[in-house]
Design a protein that fits this description.
Layout: H1 2-11, H2 14-17, H3 30-42, E1 48-51, H4 58-78, E2 79-83, H5 89-102, E3 120-125, H6 132-145, E4 149-155, H7 163-166, E5 170-173, H8 179-193, H9 199-209, H10 213-227, H11 233-239, H12 245-258, H13 261-274, H14 278-291, H15 297-315, H16 320-334
Parallel strand pairs: 1-4, 1-5, 2-3, 3-4
The chain binds adenosine-5'-triphosphate and magnesium ion.
Adenosine-5'-triphosphate binds next to helix 2, helix 4 and helix 10.
Length: 338
């Protein structure tokens, strides 16, 4: 049994193991955390809408707030988590909310050291995956249950939330974590887990994650599992799926200097064979193109526009190979002066 427990302990992903248990463990997002502390002191809460990029603490903050408000004993009775992308439409959500709101709540136990205000909290994660009709129906659900519940809607894209729903909530934007702060967090994890990772390697790993702490912690955990105490920059780049700089340089040289369609096809074949994602190729090439002084500003503007279209097509599920070929053929013909 002990062995089973300790094995389970080892298997917990670090993103979960190091998820803040209380608001005081949350790093960055200072303004929001300060205002949530005020609500805890006052024992009240408005409906909330959290939005911002992945891995910046939205789910963690609301769960930490719920723990600070209700404590471990009352958490299950007072907090319900729904994932809008899992639930089968608004009817299922309405039904669950109704049932949860109707359950009576027991009084705060004597001497219980948490504020435990007299309402329940419903967390609706990934709310931006709800259709407009479902969001319209949700307005009414929120209104009907406001006396006994508070809602926290969470999403990545606030523009996908309809105005009447957003205006019922106090909106908070989450920002990508500043480099120094996420680096500190990674160092804390290394110290706690006894990971030996050089400063340079940790800095590179942190930079690759671009303010997404989930990505940084996951990368660190995977690198540690694979390489133990021998984590190298090459190993990190490989794990993160970063395209080697030689391939990016060859690709750009081919389209803006050599203008060789055959060569382009062969580089794209290499990229496909090695399994690099098209999104990653776009991200790295656009950075190089912006820096390149032999491409005019007007050309950069057109390439930027075309890259955005390609990215949208990729997000919509278009064929990666065709999209890359189309984009780089465009750049090749745009910069061809013959
Ligand atoms: N501000 C933060 N403070 C402490 N840990 C954080 C913070 N942001 C992210 N993390 C770490 O990253 C993990 C993922 O964070 P979380 O699930 O809160 O991200 P999210 O913003 O909800 O992302 P998504 O939009 O993808 O759902 C957490 O388990 C935690 O380990
Ligand atoms: Mg989340």
């Amino acid at each position: 049994m002990t062995e089973f427990r300790s094995r389970r302990h080892v298997l917990v992903p670090w993103v979960e193991k190091f998820r803040p248990k209380s608001l005081k463990d949350v790093v960055s997002q200072d303004v929001l955390v300060a205002s949530l502390h005020k609500f805890i002191e006052a024992g009240t809460l408005p409906h909330l809408l959290f939005y911002g990029p992945p891995g910046t603490g939205k789910t963690s903050v609301i769960l930490a707030l719920a723990h600070d408000l209700f404590g471990p004993e009352m958490f299950r009775q007072r907090v319900m988590e729904l994932n809008a992308s899992d639930e089968r439409g608004i009817d299922a959500i309405r039904e669950k909310v109704k049932r949860f709101a109707q359950q009576s709540i027991s009084a705060k136990p004597e001497g219980y050291p948490f504020p435990c205000p007299p309402f329940k909290l419903i967390i609706l994660d990934e709310a931006d995956s709800l259709t407009t009709d479902a969001q319209n129906a949700l307005r009414r659900v929120i209104e009907v249950h406001t006396r006994v519940t508070r809602f926290c809607l969470i999403c990545n894209y606030v523009s996908k939330i309809i105005d009447p729903l957003a205006s019922r909530c106090a909106k908070s934007r989450f920002f990508p974590l500043p480099k120094e702060i996420s680096l500190e967090r990674l160092k804390h994890i290394c110290n706690t887990e006894g990971v030996k990772c050089g400063d340079e390697e940790l800095i590179r790993l942190n930079e690759l994650s671009k303010g997404d702490l989930r990505r940084a912690i996951t990368l660190l955990h995977s690198a540690h599992r694979l390489y133990r105490d021998d984590i190298t920059i090459d190993g990190i780049m490989d794990m993160a799926g970063i395209v080697p700089q030689e391939i990016i340089d060859e690709l750009i040289g081919c389209v803006i200097e050599d203008h060789s369609y055959d060569h382009l096809t062969s580089i794209l074949n290499t990229i496909k064979r090695k399994g690099y994602s098209a999104q990653q190729v776009l991200e790295q090439t656009i950075e190089e193109i912006i820096k390149n002084t032999s491409i005019s500003d007007a050309q950069k503007a057109q390439i930027g526009f075309q890259t955005a279209q390609t990215e949208k097509a990729l997000l919509d599920g278009a064929n990666e190979e065709m999209q890359l070929k189309s984009l780089f053929s465009f750049i090749l013909s745009l910069t061809f002066k013959g």
